[in-house]
Amino acid sequence: MAYIDSDKIRLNSLSWIDGNGDILVPLADVKKAIAQVPLEDVVKVIRCYECKNNSGIGCPFYDDINRSDTDFCSYGERIQGINYDDRSSN
Predict the structure, then answer these.
(1) What's the first-to-final CA gap in the chain, in angstroms?
(2) 27: which of 18, 61, 77, 88 is 20 to 30 A away, CA to CA?
(3) What is the model's pTM?
(4) pLDDT tens across 60-72, in order?
(5) Residues 58, 51: contact at Cβ < 8 Å?
(6) Which one, of 55, 52, 53, lies nearest residue 81 by Cα?
(7) DSSP E strands: which ranges in the chain?
């Protein structure tokens, strides 16, 4: 999956406003505008619920009273063999 900064999308095409006040833009123009935005340099984080250190051993934040399973840190290491990509987080 690739990530872009949606604030950098610029539509330079003709658009219309429908009866509900929504702006209508041809899909081909939207696709072209998105394709011109550079990809962002991002790294997927490992959240506490998917970290092998979540048992407390090796986790410097395990006993932190404010830590939740959706937090993440630079010590995170993914549990091998488990796919958490489908889990929704808040």
Answers:
(1) 20
(2) 88
(3) 0.46
(4) 887 877 888 888 8
(5) no
(6) 52
(7) 16-17, 23-24
